[in-house]
Amino acid sequence: MTGYDEWDLPPKPRHPRPPISPPEESKNKNLWLFDIEDDPEERHDVAHERWDVVRVMLRKLADYNATAVPVIFPNGPDPKGAPSLHNGVWEPWGKLDHKSPRLN
Known about the structure:
Distance between the termini: 42 Å
Structural class: mainly alpha
Strand content: under 5%
Number of helices: 1
């Protein structure tokens, strides 16, 4: 059974796992593409082999970014929301004003 109430075991790897160490080229690299079905651990970058897919994904990302609504912090971030004040997690910290959907 799958779903939110049960844990599924991860699939067994198809190949032996080599030690993870990023290649030198990855230090300045900012674009990666992985074949998740054949490489679920994302160890082999195929961006240079599948530039056609990279172009499509970058175009989609540009379209999403063009319609994104910027975040507005009217008075800047509220220091009362710092995770260090809430056991290290982000959580609601204000009281909900029922006249307005904004936190006070």
